[in-house]
Fold:
Amino acid sequence: MTTGSRASTPTRLQGRSLVVVRGIWIALMVTAVAIWLISIPPYFDLLRLPCAGQGCDLLALSQLEVDALRGMGLSTDFYAGYQIVWGIVGALAHVLLALLLFWRRSDEWVAIFVSLTLVLMAPLFFQTAPKLCQKRTRCWV
Structure:
């Protein structure tokens, strides 16, 4: 039995594998951000129209809520814009944190994984692209 030293697996990338992983990360990040940006205008349209019936988006307004907004002097465009702005702020925080991790630690597997997860999860948390595909509204698939 040995005490003290343990064989550790290398967590740092070097040479050609580092270049390949960085290239894949950049390609996936650009693709995810582009898909998310493309989905913002249709999501704005989805949010500003009242939803009737079952299966509405979480942030979609019912006709009763639209009437309440109008009673307060607010339009559905304002509501949709408000939701979109906060979605952009949240997604931007994810992307900036991912870029910071990538910039400072792109030679470590864990940092690459965490930063890529942050970038790929931003569209899911801010409900743009996945909800549009469920509604079949200008879905890229």
The chain has a mean pLDDT of 77.
